[in-house]
User: Which sequence fits this backbone?
């Protein structure tokens, strides 16, 4: 064999050896990543699913580990929504349910955005606080996450004013649902435009109107006038924060 032919043969052997090593390493890395994902999902499922809960979820056997966990978390939240719980416990339990609805929806459409993960994590934090009896330590004033934005400052003003005025005592479910619906609506508008946000803005508006009406019916005229004045003050503070553009960068909301 000539020197040139020998050099080519040596090069080919080296190339195929290196290629085989790369392919083997890639396959091993992929298998390890897949294993980690399954392990993580199983851990999440095991954290929230127990035999007594599984029996109440008819479609449990057809769900992925993540779907199982979300379904089981929903079952664990329900007892905190009962009449024997405080208004604050029920508010957080309904808010956990609203976040779960969001997470389940994101999972069902195989969304790769951060919205589903944020919603699931928010639920986990609330559920843990309820189970430990530390829900009083959770800040009532919801900062708008980076995936969303402050849109409809009039509705956010009403939410904050009602919280200031102990509106949770008369409408815990309505306030919790309206708040998450507002975040959901703005997130959709940033991601896919106003056509995808309308239904959630309308839901937030309806829930919040029910909460405001329940508060008005439960209080005298002087208290209701004070609520309206507080709504105006919040609106004046929040309106400049709404850029009017479909951009999401989050927003910190504090009591005034």
Assistant:
């Amino acid at each position: 064999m000539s020197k040139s032919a020998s050099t080519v043969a040596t090069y080919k052997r080296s190339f195929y050896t290196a290629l085989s090593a790369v392919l083997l390493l890639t396959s091993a890395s992929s298998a390890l990543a897949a294993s980690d994902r399954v392990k993580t999902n199983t851990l999440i499922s095991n954290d929230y699913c127990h035999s007594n809960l599984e029996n109440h979820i008819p479609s449990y056997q057809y769900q992925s580990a993540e779907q199982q966990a979300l379904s089981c978390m929903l079952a664990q939240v329900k007892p905190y929504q009962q009449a024997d719980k405080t208004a604050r416990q029920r508010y957080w339990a309904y808010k956990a349910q609203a976040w779960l609805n969001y997470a389940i929806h994101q999972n069902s459409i195989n969304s790769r955005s951060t919205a589903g993960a944020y919603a699931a994590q928010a639920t986990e934090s609330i559920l843990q606080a309820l189970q430990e009896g530390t829900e009083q330590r959770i800040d009532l004033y919801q900062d708008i996450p980076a995936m969303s934005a402050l849109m409809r400052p009039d509705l956010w003003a009403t939410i904050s004013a009602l919280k200031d005025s102990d509106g949770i005592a008369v409408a815990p479910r309505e306030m919790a649902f309206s708040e998450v619906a507002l975040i959901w609506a703005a997130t959709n508008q940033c991601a896919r435009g106003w056509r995808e946000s309308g239904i959630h803005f309308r839901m937030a508006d309806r829930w919040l109107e029910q909460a405001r009406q329940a508060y008005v019916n439960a209080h005298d005229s002087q208290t209701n006038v004070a609520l309206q004045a507080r709504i105006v003050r919040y609106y004046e503070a929040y309106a400049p924060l709404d850029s009017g553009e479909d951009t999401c960068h989050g927003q910190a909301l504090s009591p005034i």
